[in-house]
Amino acid sequence: MTNVDPTKTEAWKKLEAHYAQIKGIDLKEEFKKDPARAEALTLLWDDFYVDYSKNLITNETKALLVDLAKEAKLEEAINALFGGSKINRTEGRAVLHTALRAQRENSVEVDGENVMPEVFEVKEKIKNFCYSVITGAKKGFTGKAFTDVVNIGIGGSDLGPVMVTEALEFYKNHLKLHFVSNVDGDHVQEVIKDLNPETTLFVVVSKSFSTQETLSNSTTIRKWFTSKAPADAVAKHFVAVSSNVKAVEEFGIEAENIFPMWDWVGGRFSLWSAVGLSISLSIGFNNFEALLEGAREMDVHFKETAFEKNIPVQLALLTIWYNNFFKAETQAVIPYTQYLHRFPAYLQQAIMESNGKGVDRNGKNISYQTGNIVWGEPGTNSQHAFFQLIHQGTKLIPADFIGFKRSLHKEKDHHNKLMANFFAQTEALLQGKNAAEVSQELKGKGMAASEIEELLPFKIFKGNNPTTTILIDSLTPKSLGKLIALYEHQIFVQGIIWNIYSYDQWGVELGKQLATNILNEIEGNDVGKHDSSTSKMLKFYLED
Ligand SMILES: O=P(O)(O)OC[C@H]1O[C@](O)(CO)[C@@H](O)[C@@H]1O
After folding, report:
1. What is the active site of this protein (predicted)?
2. Does 371 score more than 90 pLDDT?
3. Which residue from 182, 211, 245, 506 has its CB within 8 A of the most atoms of ligand 1, so it is best to mutate?
4. Which of 80, 320, 327, 543 is deepest in the core (most CB within 10 A)?
5. Radius of gyration (Cα) for the chain, nearest Å?
6. How is 82-131 classified by DSSP, letter by letter?
7. What is the helix (H) or strand (E) element at residue 150, kind and residue range?
């Protein structure tokens, strides 16, 4: 991959000049000037309708951003990604979550070996295992079928599975899913307190199998379990997903109960692998396959579509435009379905762990902004929480609105109300309400002129707030697969343009190291050398 400093490209310089010219762009005016704007800036693909016309861009912005992608050698980079090159250079690994959803006949090589046969072998194992648990053929230690599944993992070994199982709740079977992630003992105790060990299956998910949280929670759960069941029952109730088979065996889980994954799958991109075992248990293997199929279709779209019509590319370029030119600090993602309530949290890891980097691919400190900060909550709840700040605050917050044409429970009345809000919000964010409109409205309510004058400034909405609308036919395993892959590819495009490595996460290491040292001190009741703030707090914590 070519290591191009984006700020040194021709396109960047042109974008800077272009930004200076259009930073005061008035979207309402743009819509008036160009009746074809919405059509020109909408992408229709499969069951996705992506309207990005309500963004602070012109056709020229779009063209210059595409030039930037070309100068950053995005096409070459996409080929390197799909081709299995070791693009995660600092860890010496390929990045092949796309291989996990590729078709069997594809050949994807890592170190000269086609990984597809292994991928399909593990998929077969997932399929058979899920079938036996779901049908009740596989029994617990007292001969009863399983009723509950506990996923023990953190980060990518938790957020993907929990987000997807909650998102696809509508499709789920009788198995009750639980998630333990935090090392906080109250989390694990809350989860296990009502579980019946005879009918509960534990899935320990850890790519490294060295993560403190997951090992502590698994140890606590195994202790609880063996206090209620014979020791040899562990083999029937515990399975693991990991690339560190040796460590799993040392933990006491037998080889046949281990679902392998590989170092070429990043944790935050791993839900497509055996890390998705709890997803597959919850919705059945066929639905899990449909999720993968959706992602595969998005992969093909991303790989084969011209940048001008490429959804992940266009949406990634918009984030660059806001981050680096408008200097927007954050981006909101608002799903208009309660099912996607964990989607923003999932994206926070995917996006911020990937692109929160301050050193470029040449090892040099970066002088421009990277790593967009994402946050959000489902609509309409968020409208009654933080939307005030987006509408009338001082910050520019581009927002993605994700909605569905059809509701799953066919609640037409509710769905119309939900979607009326969905459309109304992006319209309100665009249009705003000016002084004349406010004044007219208050006059219509019979308010005196003096009162109107006093209230007026508070009632004005400046509008011109950028939004992107992703409208999907309905929330299915397949459409969810496409949506997740869409954001995954956005992350990749951002990383290429920012000239950073998106697939390592060294920044999480220091905290882990210090926590290990501090834990030793706490356990030894002996506070070592720290800054005075930390020392004082540790002493306070250790006091009776
Ligand atoms: O699956 P593991 O190895 O337990 O790691 C869990 C998580 O910890 C991290 O390594 C760091 O937070 C994530 O990237 C990863 O998803």
Report:
1. 353 (proton donor), 384, 512
2. yes
3. 211
4. 320
5. 25
6. HHT---BGGGTB---TTGGGS-TT---EETTEE-HHHHHHHHHHHHHHHH
7. strand 148-152
